[in-house]
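Quick question, first post here. What does this chain look like in 3D?
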Amino acid sequence: MIILGLTGSIGMGKTTAANMLRATKGVAVHCADETVRALYDKPAVKGLIRTTFPESYDRKHNRIDKNALLESLDYDHEKWDALEDILHPFVREAQQKWLRLQHISGTKLAVLDIPLLFETGAQDRVNFTVVVTAPSWIQRRRLLQGRGMSEEGLAFRLARQMPDAEKRAQADFVIHSGLGLARTRRELADMIRVLTSREDIA
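> Answer (accepted):
Ran it through. Tokens below.
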């Protein structure tokens, strides 16, 4: 089984690429963001977040209020680091469990969709890496106009991620998302053909 790490800076089209891969026969995709969303209901995670960010805990409903948590985090890098220190070990555990199931199921290409792949050293846990990229002006348009993100919010998020050029330099494959869906789909198909044709890891 080939394990592929999929990443890309915010607004670059990683989710679109992941969905295309998910729709491809023989390919399975695990999404770190989806795992994180589910983790907030996990008692162990909820307890750690409650201890670290008590203002985010909704006592009445015994849950983490994500809006309150985001307000508490604001644009504080240390607080975001603390939250990621809580979440990342649980995400890795979920990924390893999922990979074992994919191996048993006979999956040929297992994709780990990891937003902070290079930033967290996750490239050491996969066979190959792929970065989804787009021109910076498209990225800005998607985030500022499409998602309504502020300039300050965009700058903060980009500061927490490795620059796109560095990711592309480290990646085994680069997929372009700003040149039309057909181009993205074709590049992904070409990548899959290259990966699955490698006899040494097939």
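The chain has a mean pLDDT of 94.
The domain at 2-34+88-195 is CATH 3.40.50.300 (Rossmann fold).
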